[in-house]
């Protein structure tokens, strides 16, 4: 019996719990990779109140989970009181909510209706949770809910005190979870991340992380695979937001790229490194086009000339009009404007002998003119068909001493390496991430290698 067989039942349970969603069928592929995940769901069920908005979540691990409702827990143990929890339903009003919570307290209801802070309780969206601590007479001792305050990371707390009720908004202590997902490319990246229930911000991080090595618009192949490990933040069992990708592995056209996040002691100011400690950030991005959900559908239908080094000494990237074009490296603008066959073109000097040119733009980004400093990834214009162009595309030139060259033939400048103590520290972190990659890998040889 393999490790995977042992762990299949929880995955099946997950699938069963997802039967209600239309994505069940495609999820099956992704679920195989998650089969070793433990479902120690202390109050966090893999349940999404609004499937269109919240990802179904598999809880993998709790890292330093704070006691969220410490206050409420304290009162929970107080004799003669209990905790009730309800979700807002469509058409709810304060009376119906309090009724379901078991609150029979005119004073509390009057306070909630009149207090400027507390009133937020009357305008919650369906699906949101409200917790209340109530005594046996139905009197409200306290109530709390997550409120949609900018980044939705604040909590509204209403409390009974000796002087009457008070309401306050306080920072929401967030639980950090680490999740693992895997998927396989069948039509496009986003189709695969959707099937694996990976939120868009995580998909976009994957694209950014590998942007020096993979052009997600033209390099993807059917059968490419990925594994991703990322943070999510929760409050009281409610999904709040995604965090950072901690590790990602991408097998593209037979070649596997791995990325491991490594930051300072506070987990900040870091970057992504391959398992040998080599930075994944290179001097030039592989593609000047900004990859997005909008352009990704186009991606797999790229016409034959695009992405290829051609006789005319440039690379043509087919893309819809308006697709943002990014500077592939840091530099300053040497030329921005109309230039014959190039149409609207921007030329960037990168120091040394390197420069890049971006032609046929529909328009140049505001503020981009001769002398403007630009950084890698900055949007400098938009795809168009100006100049001598047969259809919307970006003509991209990589020049060495003003001579167009095939960028794939240029040896990349030296990349940053981790050394010494930080490399030693990195190795330990990398071992943990690599172990997780193996857990998600479909290849039995890799499992056997453990
Ligand atoms: Zn061209």
Structure, described:
It is built from 10 helices and 20 strands. With 450 residues, it is an alpha+beta fold. The protein has 3 domains: 159 residues, Nuclear Transport Factor 2, Chain: A (Roll), CATH 3.10.450; 102 residues, Nuclear Transport Factor 2, Chain: A (Roll), CATH 3.10.450.350; 117 residues, Glucose Permease (Domain IIA) (Distorted Sandwich), CATH 2.70.70. Strands 11, 13, 14, 15, 17, 19 and 20 form a 7-stranded antiparallel sheet that branches. The protein has a 5-stranded antiparallel sheet with strand order 1-2-3-4-5, with helices on both faces. It is elongated and about 85 Å long. The structure holds zinc ion. Zinc ion binds next to loops.
CATH topology of the largest domain: Nuclear Transport Factor 2, Chain: A
Estimate nothing, just give the exact number of structural domains. Answer: 3
How can the largest sheet be summarized?
7 strands, antiparallel
CATH class of the largest domain: Alpha Beta
CATH architecture verdict of the largest domain: Roll
SS-based class: alpha+beta
Please count the beta strands (DSSP E, at least 2 residues each).
20
Give the amount of beta strand, in percent.
25-35%
Percent helix range: 10-25%
Radius of gyration: 27 Å
List the helices and strands in order: HHHEHHEEEEEHHEEEEHEEEEEEEEEEHH
- Can you tell me the residue ranges where pLDDT is under 50 for at least 5 consecutive residues? 1-77, 297-306, 444-450
Task: Using the alpha-carbon principal axes, give the shape.
Answer: elongated
Alpha carbon gap, first and last residue: 15 Å
Small molecules in complex? zinc ion
Mean pLDDT: 77
* Count of DSSP H/I helices: 10
């Amino acid at each position: 019996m393999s490790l995977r067989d042992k762990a299949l039942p929880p995955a099946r349970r997950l699938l069963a719990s997802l039967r209600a969603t239309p994505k069940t069928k495609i999820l099956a592929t992704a679920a195989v990779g998650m089969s070793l995940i433990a479902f120690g769901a202390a109050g966090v069920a893999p349940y999404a109140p609004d499937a269109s908005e919240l990802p179904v979540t598999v809880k993998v691990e709790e890292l330093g989970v704070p006691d969220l409702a410490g206050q409420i827990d304290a009162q929970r143990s107080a004799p003669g009181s209990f905790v009730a929890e309800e979700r807002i339903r469509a058409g709810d009003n304060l009376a119906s909510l309090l009724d379901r919570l078991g609150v029979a307290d005119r004073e509390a209801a009057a306070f909630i209706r009149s207090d400027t802070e507390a009133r937020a309780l009357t305008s919650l969206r369906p699906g949101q949770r409200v917790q209340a601590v109530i005594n046996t007479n139905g009197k409200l001792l306290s109530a709390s809910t997550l409120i949609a305050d900018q980044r939705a990371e604040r909590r509204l707390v209403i409390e009974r005190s000796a002087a009457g009720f008070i309401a306050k908004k306080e920072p929401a202590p967030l639980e950090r979870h680490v999740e693992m997902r895997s998927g396989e490319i069948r039509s496009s990246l986003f189709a695969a991340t959707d099937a694996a229930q990976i939120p868009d911000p995580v998909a976009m991080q994957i694209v950014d992380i590998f942007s020096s090595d993979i052009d997600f618009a033209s390099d993807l192949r059917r059968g490419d695979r990925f594994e991703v490990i990322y943070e999510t933040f929760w409050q009281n069992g409610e999904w709040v937001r995604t965090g950072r990708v901690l590790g990602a592995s991408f097998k593209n056209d037979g070649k596997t790229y791995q990325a491991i996040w490594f930051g300072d002691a506070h987990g900040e100011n870091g970057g992504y490194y391959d398992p040998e400690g080599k930075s994944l950030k290179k001097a030039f991005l592989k593609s000047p086009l900004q990859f997005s959900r909008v352009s990704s559908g186009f991606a797999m239908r790229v016409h034959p000339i695009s992405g290829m080094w051609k006789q005319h000494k440039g690379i043509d990237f087919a893309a819809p009009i308006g697709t943002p074009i990014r500077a592939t490296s840091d530099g300053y603008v040497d030329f921005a404007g109309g230039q014959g066959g190039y149409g609207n073109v921007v030329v960037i000097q990168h120091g040394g002998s390197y420069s890049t040119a971006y032609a046929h733009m529909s328009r140049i980004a505001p503020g981009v003119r001769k002398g403007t400093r630009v950084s890698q990834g900055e949007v400098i214009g938009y795809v168009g068909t100006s100049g001598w162009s047969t259809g919307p595309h970006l003509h991209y030139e990589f020049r060495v001493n003003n001579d167009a060259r095939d960028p794939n033939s240029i040896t990349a400048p030296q990349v940053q390496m981790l050394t010494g103590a930080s490399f030693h520290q990195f190795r330990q972190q990398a071992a943990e991430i690599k172990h997780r990659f193996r857990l998600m890998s479909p290849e039995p040889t890799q499992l056997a290698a453990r």
